Amino acid sequence: MTALPYFFTDDLIHLLIVIMSFSLVGISFYGYLRQRNSRYFLLFLAFVFIMLSQTTTAIETFFMSDQLIIIPYMDVHVTHLFDFATLLCFGFALTRSQNSSGLTPGRKSIASVKLE
Hints:
- The protein is mostly helical.
- The protein has a domain at about 40-95.
- Helix content is about 65%, strand content about 5%.
- The chain has helices at about 5-35, 40-65, 80-95, and strands at about 70, 75.
- A hairpin with a 4-residue loop joins strand 1 (about 70) and strand 2.
- The longest helix has 30 residues, at about 5-35.
- It starts with 5 loop residues before the first helix and ends in a 21-residue tail after the last helix.
- The mean pLDDT is about 85.
């Protein structure tokens, strides 16, 4: 049995990753619409950045002969910026509280404290 050519399998994997990232954006947006809190919004935003990163990588692979898209004046590969934003969003989403107000359970907001 002969193996598939490298370029075919590489392109196929990139295409599957882009399709999966678009579907995860849709699923996370639906979750945000149902819950409407900051944790779900941050998860949705993280998946958007993953989608942007993977779509950029696929464009570089398919159309630019693996040439990188660099941000001018910063000399940073644009996918690194998307990956960093993804990690920030996931990190903030994981450290957010469960309730929709964004407060730690048992804490009161400044607006709800009555001055005596």
